[in-house]
Design a protein that fits this description.
Blueprint (H helix, E strand, L loop, with lengths): L2 H11 L4 H7 L4 H8 L7 H11 L3 H5 L15 H14 L3 H13 L14 H12 L5 H9 L2 H5 L10 H10 L9 H13 L2 H21 L2 H23 L5 H21 L1
Helix pairs in contact: 2-3, 6-7, 6-8, 7-9, 8-9, 8-13, 9-11, 11-13, 12-14, 13-14, 13-15, 14-15
């Protein structure tokens, strides 16, 4: 594919008009039109500006293989995952999980994943299915997977959660409070430090990070991707150690470490 075709495809994927792109990189509408029709090509400075604004690499614009891959934001249907979790919870009498499932679906209604049309409930359901795939059948862990974002992102109160005290404790640990007057570093140190003291919370947070790493390719800007990489490298080794130190979760720890570190390496190479 040509540079012009790549620019047009990326622009349309971002739902931008030619005029919006022109304004962003300080050129005329006609200049963008000429680029996309391969009449002219952007100079080096404009290529860099285009890449920065469109949040892609320069090679994504200049390479001739942009259309060689078909990407998708969601792998599984969230309603199928919901049915799977509900059926499993019923068959094993996981009462907290059953209550948490309906509550989470309601709490996240009309919310979508960042920069996508995917229903937000896809995320907590993925965490629960990830745990089940690792043969973790603990009611409090599965329920907390489903509820881990409802306080932070939905404005719900811990007291109103339809689960027992153990699940509420996990949700509280996993909820990052928006403190004022404290630096981001101090807040993160306190947040991850508390999670690392509880192996179940650490397990859920590692599963959460696995899913967030898979979606950050389209959900985050380059700057935020780099910040997430640094944050993961700084804090997650301690969380993984907390998981490993619990014999029951040894297999899960191996899988989680492999996925987290593999994805970090891939992102570093691509970025």
């Amino acid at each position: 594919m040509s540079i012009g075709t790549n620019i047009k495809k990326i622009r349309e994927d971002r739902k931008l008009t030619q005029q919006q792109l022109a304004d962003a990189v300080d050129v005329s509408f006609q200049a963008v039109s000429n680029w996309e029709r391969d009449i002219n090509i952007p100079d080096t400075v404009k290529l860099i500006e285009l890449a920065r604004f469109l949040d892609v690499s320069v090679s994504s614009i200049t390479d001739d293989c942009l259309s060689a891959f078909v990407t998708k934001d969601a792998i599984y249907n969230w309603e199928h995952m919901k049915t799977y979790v509900k059926t499993t919870a019923k068959s094993h009498s996981l009462n907290n999980t059953l209550k948490a499932l309906d509550y989470a679906v309601c709490a996240h209604k009309n919310q979508t994943r960042k920069n996508s049309d995917i229903p937000y409930i896809y995320h907590p359901l993925t965490l629960a299915c990830h745990a089940l795939a690792m043969k973790i059948m603990e009611d409090d862990i599965l329920a907390a997977c489903l509820l881990h974002d409802v306080v932070e992102d939905c404005g719900r109160n811990y007291c109103d959660l339809p689960v027992d005290r153990d699940v509420k404790k996990l949700v509280r640990l996993l909820t990052r409070e928006k403190d004022s007057g404290i630096s981001r570093e101090k807040a993160l140190n306190a947040y991850y430090g508390s999670i690392a003291e509880d192996s179940k919370a650490a397990l859920i947070k590692c599963i959460d990070r696995c899913n967030n790493l898979t979606t950050m390719s389209w959900g985050l800007s380059r700057e935020k991707k780099l910040r997430m990489i640094n944050e993961t490298e700084k804090y997650y080794p301690k969380l993984l150690k907390a998981v490993k130190d619990t014999p029951t979760y040894n297999d899960a720890a191996w899988l989680l470490q492999y996925q987290i570190e593999s994805m970090l390496d891939i992102y570093k190479r691509l970025l």
